[in-house]
## 1
Amino acid sequence: MQLFVNDLTVMDFSYLCPRRGMVGESWIVDVILDGGLNEESMVLDFGLVKKQLKRLIDEHVDHKLLVPADNPLCQVQHNEAEERVLVDFLRGSGLSIHLNCPADAYAFIYADEISMASVSQYLKEVIATSLPQNVQGLTLMLRSEVINSPYYHYTHGLKKHDGNCQRIAHGHRSKVVVFKDEQNAPDLEQYWATRWQDIYIGTREDLVELDTLQLSSQAQSMDLSGHYPFAYESSQGRFELVIPMAESDLIDTDSTVECLAQFMADEHKRMQPSAQFKVMAFEGVGKGAIAYA
């Protein structure tokens, strides 16, 4: 017997890619359970599937930075005493990425690259130990939202957030809808899809001096003049990130979706003062904010 649950959850996270750098992503999770019927004549109660499996996925992937631990560009140093991890992603050509964050900010995927297949295998191993004995098989299907209009991948951190959004490197795959003078404007949507393709959106007040960061000895020996150094303290600890300027965009506010929507609307107003703009900015799948200028 098979039990299926579509749209179990959406995982919002970022990952390190040798070609694209730090990539914000949103994947929808569908699940199939194989097994015999239990004493309730069920494979597993739908409520338990939604509660237990979603909790495990949220704990191990959602709002984390996924690191391809077997990739030769990746160097990882664990500080077990302080529960912190240093990560260097040595892409070369001034595009390296460096982090020093609490251990919970990462998920280490033992593969050469982050893909739906490697993440699915990682999650299957995590979930398998928590399933009842009558469940003998688990299939996880990861997929992207079908978006037939412009979208972008962005990474950010929200230092004021009480939950996991405070992690400095998590992200989303998000569409954007722009209206100019009450008419849909696909060209303006494409502007953001191009400007924020695989981007880190940083808040200016989180910029720090490079020499104040506790980076790895490898990072300290490198010329990082073409990088932005970010750091902040939040309830989960201190987060530090050094990322190429060429793959970043700076704003003067926090990078909540509300602030991003307003930033986008204000940018269009700045470029075309005589027009009126409405921006619907999404944060992953099915949620977001609307701003006007």
## 2
Amino acid sequence: MARTSRKANRRHPLATVVLIAIGLAFTGGGYALFSSTATADSNVAASQATVEEGSKLFAANCATCHGMNLEGSAAGPNLLGVGAASVDFQVGTGRMPLAMQGPQAMQKPPQFTEEQTAALAAYVASLSPGPAVPTDSQIADTGDATNGGELFRINCAMCHNVAGAGGALTEGKFAPELTGVDSKYVYEAMLSGPQNMPVFNDHNITPEDKRDIITYLKYLQNNPSPGGFELGNLGPVAEGLFIWIFGIGAVVALTVWLTAKSN
């Protein structure tokens, strides 16, 4: 009986391992919960600080035209619903703040740093949601250039030229050249429709199709014309003018020279 009692009271060999595992599980779970909560609080604090910084910048540089609550005025449109993407495009390319009134906002060196631009975008987005700034995967030039070229010719070439060289519009306006433009700004322009450009939301042109268009533009930029001098990629008008001035002119000059020589 004594031997049986000792066996009944003896601890199982794995009991210590189980106790250690339970202790580690509770400790690790508590640490993970604490660290995730602390990280979330830190992110919220950073986001709030960014919005507050953007609020100050907006009040000092934008509110005169666009109103403190984005309601707009006679000097500038309302910004309700434009989202962070539109602000990032307009401010990041230097089009805003305006240097002067004109047919359209001209691109110039940006007035704000990238951090200040992000703060302005965050502030506007906090008051009225809209299209967000695209992610790196959305603007990567790893799409289908063939599909992008077809979409570009259908939706963009009538203004920007099939080679992205830009073109003139009515009343002193123009479609800018797209060579050398940051992929992020191309994507944001499609989302927000700046100036005379229509809005191509994700229902019109999907994010994948937008990436294909960016891939096509980067292909044009990195692969110069194999046919020789491009004449600015301005199309048949420039090419025809070149032929008339230099080609026909050379023929006339040669004819005059041969006639003079024979006489």
## 3
Amino acid sequence: MMDYSAVAKRYTIFTVSIILLFLLVALLFPNSPLFLGIAFGASFSLLNLINTYLQVKRIGEAMDGMKKPGLFIFGTLTRIIAAVAAVAVAMRFPEYLQIEGVLIGLTVTYVIILLEPMFHMKRLNQ
């Protein structure tokens, strides 16, 4: 079975690095609402990643018989609510957060999940 905790940790480090990078860029450039929006959206994307990891961990433990499956698992609904909350905050404070940046930021972990395995292709082929 795959070690999901190591993968989730790696994705978390990448996402936090991107958040810090865009916060630094926001300090340096005058169009900071866009970069602050990306960092803000990426923060919610990180929360969604952690939520997904916990859900996968819970399901894995239930499949291994280590734990009984719960009646209710916060999954897709929680991630949708988090994304809507991020957009709502951006719409409430447009002078600080640009909505386009928040939408871009919300996709950060998904882009990392899609691109990161490409860097391990050589290792997998050996």
## 4
Amino acid sequence: MEIKVGLLGYGTVGSGVAKILTLEGELLKEKIGRPLKLQAAAVRNLDAERAFPPPPGILTTDPYKIAGNPEIQVVVELMGGIEPARSLILRALESGQHVVTANKALLAEKGDEIFQAARKSGRELAFEAAVAGAVPVIRTLKEGLAANRVQSVFGILNGTTNYILSAMTQDGTSYGEALAAAQRLGYAEADPTFDVEGLDAAHKLVLLTALAYGTLPKVEDVHAEGITGLEPTDFAFARELGYVIKLLATAALSPEDGGVEARLHPAMIPRGHLLAGVSGAMNAVMIRGHASGDIFLSGAGAGMMPTASAVVGDIVDVARTGKNGSSPFRPSLGWHSLKAGGVRDVLETRTAHYVRFSVSDRPGVLSAISGAFGRHGISIARVIQKGRDPKSGAVTLVLLTHRAMERDIRKALEETAAFEALTAPAKRIRVEELSLPE
């Protein structure tokens, strides 16, 4: 008995999914034990050019010929956005269809409603392609590491920003130059805001936090910073200090009280760490389990075929259910009940910090800055002072701190911002050693 699949959307990723289903039918049949058939695909424009021409007669402009159609067992949502994707997914689940989606924004924003609908219907909601593309991080967290208490998840979750940061690291280019190169190569959109301000990665981090800890935070509760304020000077200092700058997503249990942290921001990480070597438009995730130790996954985070690979992987997983396409309910997030409560306020988190000051060349400046940090309980691990700039006459002063509370570092920087000796606002980047807690 064949399993019929319907696509909601036939853009770049949809074309890749159709290509795999059409050209690799025999391979998939061998793996599942029965054939998959692409039954229909809903599109806005029947005449648009597509990367992979659809099989004859499958296109329709009516998505409700797929969502709610009893002849179709698996609905694949690749439309993106919130509506009408939300309504169509809910219709499919309520109709007894399994759903596969790559829509991280929808799941992060409306996950409570959609995961509950999947639970109520007893149907599968699979979303491997929503986080890190072809990298099987979701299946790893749900299944491969099910026996583990997850201590931390660190991730490079956006290929656009990783390409830009890699170019700034390797070539010493400015942010603007690196962004322009990313746009020429097709890694960045004409309007890159969603990527460079961290919104895309923050949506993925919401899902990783839910998978790791069984709590689905609100997007607005996840602290997110982008990369637009980074300067070549900071990359030079990172090299001198033995670090690489990455846009790092962190979901972790606080060593202080076991609370869940979820934050996304630029971070300096040790140059010799595996994550530091992830360059270009690649994604990577490092998961630390109490029994497994560190698990490192890396691969293409976007693109037609890598993303389609993850989508079809989910279709295959759903198709391996019972004879009639149903099975005992498997919770979408790997948890039968989600914990109440959100994530820790970023003000209560601790990291080390790199702080760069531009100051007038006068006696007592370093002492004054150090005193302000000391008053707020911040210990300084290292100081670098560069000579006077011949144009401005300013001196660059870099402080590397020991681990400190976010609340305290902000208070210290607020105090130093009032110093007359400062010639420009201080620049701060968090430092993550990514080592096992002491």
